[in-house]
């Protein structure tokens, strides 16, 4: 795999509450966007990824033989991370109420398995098309699915950043899980809302398609988000599947 990644605080925020992690030996890619501002969102996102990697390394996934097994494993991992963040938020007054989004992707045997809580996204670029694999857990996405507003209206809605699910927000936090076939030449993108709120899907597609160097691609995507306003922290992980 050819992998590139970058996180940046953007142009408007005083701190960066995003975190990302590439666990290359396990073919896992993770991204978290902290929620809470002065409630230590940056601690929540970093600790969520630390605890997720700890779970992965202490509970090897090699015996998993089916899609259902992998999804059960994902749910157990998210449950572990969720309870870890809840306990952390209860440990010190300044951590009270902190939470984070979480999205991760795992590639094995020509299949990408994905899980998410919140509005950080995983995309697949395949045959010249871009597909959002995850489903945003947001107030406005719920309205879109109900037919109450359009996607264009959601993009400018006053409550577009209100998320309906987050790690650490409550004791029962089920992730959405997905699987999709992948092949050599496909590209994978994980990103926080700081990217897709500033750069539309077609521009993301054209950018990730024209780069061979995924680190240069990640840097270009972050630069575009900042040039278009940089209103939030922005993080990206770009993966080129170079082998079958």
Report on the structure:
The protein is an alpha+beta fold and 244 residues long. It has a single domain (2-240), classed as PPM-type phosphatase domain (Phosphatase 2c, domain 1), CATH 3.60.40.10. 34% of the residues lie in helices and 27% in strands. It has seven helices and eleven strands. It has helices spanning 41-58, 67-89, 139-146, 151-155, 193-196, 201-210, 214-227; strands at 2-8, 18-23, 28-35, 99-100, 102-108, 111-117, 121-126, 129-132, 176-181, 187-191, 234-240. Strands 2, 3, 4, 5, 6 and 9 form a six-stranded antiparallel beta sheet that branches. The chain has a five-stranded antiparallel beta sheet with strand order 1-11-10-7-8. A hairpin with a 2-residue loop joins β7 (121-126) and β8. α1 (41-58) packs across α2.
Structural class determined from secondary elements? alpha+beta
Strand content: 25-35%
Task: Estimate the mean pLDDT confidence.
Answer: 91
CATH superfamily: PPM-type phosphatase domain
CATH topology: Phosphatase 2c, domain 1
Which key phrases capture this entry?
alpha+beta, six-stranded antiparallel beta sheet, five-stranded antiparallel beta sheet, 7 helices, globular
Note the topology:
Blueprint: E1 2-8, E2 18-23, E3 28-35, H1 41-58, H2 67-89, E4 99-100, E5 102-108, E6 111-117, E7 121-126, E8 129-132, H3 139-146, H4 151-155, E9 176-181, E10 187-191, H5 193-196, H6 201-210, H7 214-227, E11 234-240
Antiparallel strand pairs: 1-11, 2-3, 3-4, 3-5, 5-6, 6-9, 7-8, 7-10, 10-11
Helix pairs in contact: 1-2, 6-7
């Amino acid at each position: 795999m050819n992998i590139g990644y970058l996180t940046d605080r953007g142009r408007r925020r005083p701190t960066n509450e995003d975190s990302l992690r590439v666990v290359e030996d396990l073919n896992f890619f993770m991204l978290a966007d902290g929620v809470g501002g002065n409630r230590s969102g940056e601690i929540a996102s970093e600790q969520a990824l630390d605890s997720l990697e700890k779970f992965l390394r202490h509970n090897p996934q090699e015996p998993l033989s089916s899609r259902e097994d992998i999804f059960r494993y994902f749910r157990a991992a998210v449950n572990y991370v969720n309870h870890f963040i809840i306990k952390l938020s209860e440990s010190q007054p300044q951590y009270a109420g902190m939470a984070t989004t979480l999205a991760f992707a795992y590639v094995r045997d020509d299949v990408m398995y994905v899980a998410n809580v919140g509005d950080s996204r995983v995309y697949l670029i395949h045959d010249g098309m871009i597909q959002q694999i995850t489903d945003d857990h947001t107030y406005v996405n719920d309205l879109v699915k109900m037919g109450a507003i359009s996607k264009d209206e959601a993009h400018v809605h006053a409550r577009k950043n209100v998320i309906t699910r987050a790690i650490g927000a409550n004791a029962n936090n089920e992730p959405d899980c997905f699987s999709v076939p992948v092949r050599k030449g496909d590209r994978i993108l994980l990103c926080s809302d700081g990217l897709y709120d500033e750069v539309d899907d077609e521009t993301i597609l054209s950018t990730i398609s024209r780069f061979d160097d995924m680190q240069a691609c990640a840097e270009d995507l972050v630069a575009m988000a900042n040039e278009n306003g940089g209103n939030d922290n922005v993080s990206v992980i770009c993966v080129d599947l170079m082998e079958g």
